[in-house]
Write a structure and sequence with these properties.
With about 170 residues, the protein is mainly alpha-helical. It contains seven helices and three strands; from the N terminus they run ααααβααββα. The protein has a domain of about 80 residues: Winged helix-like DNA-binding domain superfamily/Winged helix DNA-binding domain (Arc Repressor Mutant, subunit A), CATH 1.10.10.10. It is elongated.
Length: about 170
């Protein structure tokens, strides 16, 4: 076996560099696990925010339906004065409805994020928020590769297609 003559100072320096590389590698692994943990927490927080936004939109829609059934113009006026009518966000949505496929995709994704939703309900929310005919939404959904339809005619439900959720997230990012 050949014997190498290495300067002791160079050998000590190599040992020191090796130890430093191992320390940096351990720190990188720790940082990677911390980043993974933070990403999971962020994802959970986003899901919670989406759920709360969906619940708020559903509650607003239900309230508006109840308010619309009131026969008394005085009560309707009182509700509007108290700020309980359609929110300014909904009013802003009416003036700027989804224009292109990306905006519609983002809107539908927010409504179907973690559950199926009936076509009738989805159309009602769409029409209420944007004042547009429901048929434009149905046409969009029928041609989109990201969403799927289940059920029987008259009782369709829409959801995010299996294996398309990640594609959809990339598309919306």
């Amino acid at each position: 076996m050949p014997v190498f003559d290495i300067d002791p100072d160079v050998f000590a320096d190599l040992k020191h560099q090796n130890a430093e590389v191992r320390r940096l590698e351990a720190a990188l692994r720790k940082t990677d696990s911390e980043i993974t943990s933070l990403c999971e927490k962020l994802s959970h927080a986003q899901e919670t925010a989406h759920s709360q936004r969906d619940a708020l939109a559903d509650t607003r829609h239900q309230f508006n339906e109840v308010a619309a059934t009131l026969a008394s113009p005085g009560l309707q006026g009182l509700l509007r004065k108290a700020g309980a009518g359609p929110s300014s966000a909904a009013a802003g949505a009416v003036s700027s409805p989804p224009q292109g496929p990306r905006e519609k995709t983002e809107w539908v994704y927010s409504k179907l994020r973690r559950r199926e939703r009936s076509q009738v309900e989805l159309c009602e929310v769409y029409s209420a928020e944007f004042g547009k005919p429901a048929q434009s939404l149905i046409t969009f959904l029928a041609t989109s590769k990201y969403f799927r339809k289940t059920g029987t005619p008259g009782d369709f439900c829409w959801s995010i297609s299996a294996n398309r959720d990640n594609d959809l997230r990339e598309y919306l990012a």
